[in-house]
Amino acid sequence: MGSAWAAGIRSGHDDWDNLPADLKAHCLRYLSAESVLEFAAISSDASATALSEELWSDIFHRDWRWLFSAGPSKEMSFRRQHALVSQRARRDDSAFVVFGGIVQWDGDGHADASMVSALTGHKAELHWRSRTLPVPGRCAAGLCHGCGQVFAVGGFDFSAERATSVAEAMDVSDVLSGEPVVQALPRLNTARACPGVVATPEVLLTIGGGSSMFTAAEAFTSVEALPWSSLHSEWRPAASLQRPRCAAGVCTTAAGHVYVVSGYAGKDRYEDTVEWIDASGSEAFLRGWQTAPALSHARAGCVSCFGPEGCIWALGGGRNESESLASVERLDPRMPRWCCDVPPMPGRRRCFAGGFGVDAKLYIYGGWDSARWHDPTAWRLDLRAMRWEQLPTLHGEVSGIIPYHFVSGCVALW
Fold first, then answer.
1. Architecture of domain 2-89 in CATH?
2. Domain 93-413 falls under CATH 1.10.3720.10
3. By the 8 A CB rule, do 318 and 325 touch?
């Protein structure tokens, strides 16, 4: 289509030259990136339009913005970023990262530890790499990817039976190499088990969570923000949620809107409600949290993520400790309700890891239901075929288990 379109422009060269610059760019933004570059070779005028930063900003946001919740890099052009991400996508240069706690037996007793595992590709095969980290041992932490780093925030110290306030960052390049180097971040103002953590264009947000990972927990409405401009300063209070939410699903859309899905509200209450906030800028954030369409089912412990087709997804979770769901719901933000038109996951899961990869497939790992503490299997959903594909299993270390039954995860790109 692009070649035929370019040929048509050649034949009507004078008509094209007479079009206003903004209309020229509007005509090109619907073509593939390859067709736009092919068109740029027609003439100097075509090149000026086809290589403009404004046009490539639109193309980048159309094709890849869903992968970058913190926004594109400010250090390179949109055309360069598009080419780089496209190249990484062809090589599948990303990792499905899982963070959780393990129990390591030391003879007389046990010690808690934290482990990061990454599912990466090598010679057309996927395999897991795991490393025990030199950080406080915990599970039920929040995890997200942004600005080339993976962030692990909060969690629950299983042996001490208390929430933690620690936070760390790891460069994605180190995680991909199998040698993660941990950088300590400022501690949260409030210790939080099962918080939601997301990267937005201006800040890292830690949302809700609770005093414990068990149902007796107090659930929080409070939110803390750590600005990208001062990651080593301190967490600051941000706009509070409308309702308390522990173990909620969280994600950020391509428009910079943060969605918080379901969660445990304390006092044996489970939310089927959803709320969102515009985090695309500081002024928009001041408008606070808004109500979104409610789910068909309460899904505390669900995975929520934003997909390449522009929908918010909610997978698994459940209403109480004896109920875990395999079903999946998704919401187009322009529509008034969630749809249940996706094949259910292979097995019931709650408090597990999930996220969309650069291959536009949805990855899941771990979790638990009433029948077992930990599911070691991993799967991914091919959106084109709407079919789940089984991935390598991760059982954990011989001397421990990864991770208890509360894990967190994300898909990280370089």
1. Up-down Bundle (1.20)
2. no
3. yes
